[in-house]
Amino acid sequence: MSVPKPEDLKVMLEARDNHVREQWIKAMEVRLVREELDKCQRGEGVNAHVHCKELADRYLTMLADAKVKGWRIVDTQAFKE
Predict the structure, then answer these.
(1) Whole-angstrom Cα distance, residue 59 to residue 35?
(2) What is the model's pLDDT at position 73?
(3) CA distance 66 to 52
(4) What residues have CB less than 8 Å from 16, skipping those under 6 apart?
(5) How many CA atoms lie less than 13 Å away from 30 in the CB half-sphere?
(6) CA-CA distance, 28 to 38, in Å (whole number)?
(7) Is there a contact between 37 and 56 (Cβ–Cβ < 8 Å)?
């Protein structure tokens, strides 16, 4: 494994930062949807499964790809190229 050039290192660090930032934004969006779903379920009571279905479906679809994986995935993709 060779030592990366300073220009490449700067690009790689920026890519890391952007990748982690985007993952955290997705995670926080999921958190907001979950909070809205909790409010809806508390407000609707026994009818929550009917009135909050859209929020629940949105939460489940967002939850699937909102995991924060970190910056190592960016590095492994960079070394494959």
Answers:
(1) 10
(2) 62
(3) 21
(4) 71, 74, 75
(5) 17
(6) 15
(7) yes
Reported as type and span, the H/E element at residue 62 is helix 53-64
From the number of C-beta atoms within 10 Å of its C-beta (0-12, 13-18, 19+), residue 52 rates as: buried
Token pair in block for residue 28 = 């926080």
Q: By percentage, how much of the chain surpasses pLDDT 90?
A: 40
Helix then strand then coil, % of the chain, to nearest 5: 85, 0, 15
pTM of the model: 0.71
What pLDDT does 33 receive?
A: 95
pLDDT higher than threshold 70 for residue 80:
no
Q: Provide the token pair at 76.
A: 């492994």
**Average pLDDT score over residue span 43-68:** 89
Structural domain spans, the chain: 12-80
